Amino acid sequence: xxxxxxxxxxxxxxxxxxxxxxxxxxxxxxxxxxxxxxxxxxxxxxxxxxxxxxxxxxxxxxxxxxxxxxxxxxxxxxxxxxxxxxxxxxxxxxxxxxxxxxxxxxxxxxxxxxxxxxxxxxxxxxxxxxxxxxxxxxxxxxxxxxxxxxxxxxxxxxxxxxxxxxxxxxxxxxxxxxxxxxxxxxxxxxxxxxxxxxxxxxxxxxxxxxxxxxxxxxxxxxx
Length: 223
Description:
By secondary structure, this protein is mainly α. It has helices at 6-44, 63-69, 72-104, 110-122, 125-135, 142-149, 163-191, 195-203, 208-220. The model has no long low-confidence stretch (mean pLDDT 85).
């Protein structure tokens, strides 16, 4: 019988230890993500009436989904969601990329600049929401004061009453809040790019735009 390989046994022990170390994270994901999602799907297959809880929760299958698909308000809400996601994600990617490229350069005071850019992301969402609500207040908001003062608006506007104008503060607030996080992710990807690739591209005569297009963007895709 051949002797046991100590290296193979050590690898098995490390693999077993890794599974135990990962188990709490997996359990947390199951509790906070998979279980609520599964419960939501299960609940959507039943009928609920909070006004008459004594009726129970009878199983109705896909009736709730069929009713939602036939409701014009559902499609209106879906369209608004798609529009909001498209605009905000597009702006956050462009602005986040610009901030990340700026923060990736070596310049005096780079540390404080990075910290300042990340402040909106660190502010709690509730606080940020109240801040933007006060800024766009129809009576004493600073946005109305500035726009009226420079002549863009003839009079103060109540932003949150009109469906079209309400998009402005909502989109701006989300972009202001999320762009620093996007910039942080992109910055991490930029710092993983080997500087020798840019040096080789410069030696080959590549312009700054070609370096960005053929070196930076392809290597940022995993980020």
